[in-house]
Recover the amino acids of this structure.
């Protein structure tokens, strides 16, 4: 993480010096920016509910290519540090997964034999918090007014494409015991029926991992608009501030395909069965960005 921050700052400073050497025609402006955003998560399945508003902190290199005084193209590289939460509902019953140490077990690891459930412990999931890091490339057209004294006002329209760098999650829920022993998948029917032989304890599971690297999509794309103002306070140096709204076009969480799913509801009967499923969410963001361009 420290290397990432140092690298980004070094590139930003170098780019700023390069931009200053370009003279006064301002065909290219470069600089650094910080963005604070609110993440509004929209569930894509009835099995989950949104849980509050997430937060985004982003910083990075911004580059404006100016075609003329009024039209340009804005891009760069930004690193987004984001968090958000989802809560599980019980529309289809309690939600479980099997695990071993910090590894969450997927359906296909059972090889179609429920007897293999006894190899793993059981966790009831009631909520999940994600912390994600993205490398984002904005590609936006920028439309500026003529200079009004030292100020210009502008609007942007375009996309933000993000590539997942790292994702971690913390699970909230319950662990179980049968007598003095930790419950395993062999006890899942007793757990689902709230048997008196089973006791539960609220717990948080940090750093849990899935075999396919987490249930977050590797690429995220959003479409949005932004508006703001630039203040030229000396030479080629400008401060800017803008507000933006970005609508997620692609899912943040991916459900998984086939047997790559890890969460399940349990139906007790003759025979009992597990209905495996995945999470699916999209996201919209409302952001404030401030920065300096040279």
């Amino acid at each position: 993480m420290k290397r990432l921050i140092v690298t980004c700052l070094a590139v930003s400073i170098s780019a700023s010096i390069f931009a200053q050497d370009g003279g006064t025609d301002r065909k290219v402006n470069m600089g650094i920016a910080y963005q604070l955003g609110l993440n509004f998560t929209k569930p894509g399945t009835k099995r989950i509910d949104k849980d509050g508003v997430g937060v985004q902190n982003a910083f990075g290199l911004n580059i404006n290519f100016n075609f003329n005084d009024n039209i340009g193209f804005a891009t760069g590289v930004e690193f987004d540090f984001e968090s958000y939460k989802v809560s599980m509902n019980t529309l289809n019953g309690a939600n479980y997964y099997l695990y071993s140490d910090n590894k969450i077990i997927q359906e296909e690891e059972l090889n179609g034999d429920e007897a293999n459930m006894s190899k793993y412990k059981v966790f009831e999931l009631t909520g999940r918090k994600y912390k994600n890091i993205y490398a984002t490339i904005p590609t936006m057209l920028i439309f500026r007014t003529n200079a009004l004294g030292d100020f210009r006002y502008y609007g942007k329209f375009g996309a933000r494409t993000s590539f997942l760098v790292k994702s971690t999650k913390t699970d909230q829920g319950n662990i179980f015991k049968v007598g003095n022993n930790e419950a395993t998948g062999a006890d899942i029917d007793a757990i689902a029926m709230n048997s008196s032989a089973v006791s539960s304890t609220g717990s948080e599971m940090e750093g849990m991992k899935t075999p396919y690297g987490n249930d977050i999509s590797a690429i995220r794309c959003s479409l949005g608009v932004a508006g703001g103002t630039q203040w030229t306070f000396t030479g080629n140096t400008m401060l800017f501030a803008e507000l933006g709204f970005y609508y997620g076009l692609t899912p943040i969480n991916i459900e998984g395909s086939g047997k790559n799913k890890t969460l399940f509801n349990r139906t007790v009967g003759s025979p009992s069965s597990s209905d495996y499923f995945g999470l699916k969410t999209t996201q919209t963001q409302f952001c404030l960005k401030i920065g300096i361009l040279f």
About this structure: The longest strand covers residues 151-178. The two ends are 27 Å apart (CA to CA). The chain has one domain: 2-293.
